[in-house]
From TrEMBL:
<keyword id="KW-0732">Signal</keyword>
<dbReference type="GO" id="GO:0016810">
    <property type="term" value="F:hydrolase activity, acting on carbon-nitrogen (but not peptide) bonds"/>
</dbReference>
<feature type="signal peptide">
    <location>
        <begin position="1"/>
        <end position="22"/>
    </location>
</feature>
<dbReference type="InterPro" id="IPR006680">
    <property type="entry name" value="Amidohydro-rel"/>
</dbReference>
<dbReference type="InterPro" id="IPR011059">
    <property type="entry name" value="Metal-dep_hydrolase_composite"/>
</dbReference>
<dbReference type="InterPro" id="IPR032466">
    <property type="entry name" value="Metal_Hydrolase"/>
</dbReference>
<dbReference type="InterPro" id="IPR051781">
    <property type="entry name" value="Metallo-dep_Hydrolase"/>
</dbReference>
<protein>
    <submittedName>
        <fullName>Amidohydrolase family protein</fullName>
    </submittedName>
</protein>
<keyword id="KW-0378">Hydrolase</keyword>
<dbReference type="InterPro" id="IPR057744">
    <property type="entry name" value="OTAase-like"/>
</dbReference>
<dbReference type="Pfam" id="PF01979">
    <property type="entry name" value="Amidohydro_1"/>
</dbReference>
<feature type="domain" description="Amidohydrolase-related">
    <location>
        <begin position="83"/>
        <end position="429"/>
    </location>
</feature>
Amino acid sequence: MAIASMLRRFSMLLVLVSSALAWGHCAAAESELLFRQVRVLDTVRGTLGDPTDVLVRGNQIAGIGANAQPSESAQVIEGRGRTLMPGLIDAHWHSTFTALSQATMTAPDAKPELLAATVAAESERTVMRGFTSVRDVGGPVFELKAAIDTGKVVGPRIWPSGATVSQTSGHGDMRLPHERSRRFFGKPSLAEEMGATFIADGRDEVLTAVRENLRMGASQIKLMAGGGTSSAYDPVDVTQYTLDEMRAAVEAAEDWGTYVTVHAYTVRAVRRAIEAGVKCIEHGQLLDEATLKLMARQGVWLSTQTLRPSTDAMDPIRREKRKPVIEGQARTIAAAKRAGVRMAWGTDFLFEPELNVEQNAFILGLRDWFTPAEILKMVTHDNAELLALSGLRSPYQGRLGVVEVGALADLLLVEGNPLANLDLIADPVHNFAVIVKDGRVIKGEQARNDL
């Protein structure tokens, strides 16, 4: 079977994965869940409250303390003084590409049924690590999101970008060596056919690519504005897209009430993106203090990662390309904090499925610059504020990242106090006693058997 045909089937099969992974969607009718005697983590103030009751009705938090008055049919979870906190959020995730290696995905004998099941299984593992929401910033994800939202697959809430938008020779130009330009030779590349990227040059093509993603349900648009470390043809220092092309993307997104986020490291790329009206920068490890102060003044977000040093196992070219990024990370994050830049955090794992088990542990890398309270706020409340930039294009209306009356009920019951011991969140298997997403218990002794 041709790889392109196989990948198209894979995309369709994401909504038809094995029932062994399904959790039977049930209506969020006014079922009730009472957490009795839990200590609520206030992610905004960085404090832990005294033991109290928290009532969930349907998919929202309905009462705390004296206002938590359950019906007789409410499901009760005994907190015993454990910590109740919001679900974790990964602001830079690739749902498909983190589940599959490049070799697995493009193997001539790969079976689409197996690929779909692998992605669905990783989706379930993601939410079982406590990540109840992710912002997917590039890749074929719409079918997976639909399968999760309709209860066919267990997984986090997904804010999808869809295919990345890249110029020819840009960071999203993933063509194989033998693949030629669609514009000149008429055939889309494999990456374009599978929904990984749009190679779009000129204002008109950029508008079409952005609008196509919006048509499919994108909650934000991901644009490649500079070189990258994992791509073959673009050096890290290059600037991508003209100001006019980038403005076209911003205008199309803003017409739909949402925003553009860009992949960029350098001062030149980021300043052009800011001038174009971009609202978020992914990465940015090569920025100077002046540009970070400009971002703070303009209210532009920095979505950062806690990258680990390169290893000998990495491709030598990639190791060399990563060198300035790794060297700039500590300086840039510290300077961004001093400048008052609004910051989010995500992992940005790509094609290394064995790394996914460390998704929680990567949060601990933020300790070089932030206190435990600041870190917990970033990976819950602050990341939720970034998700909210999607406005009416957000697929899930409601507040996340806090344990407050009226907020959506994405909750973790933690064994211990993560403010005092942040290491607790790095071991979700043993320390996340209960996980609730959208008002439903998906992990815990009292997980409902109809989910």
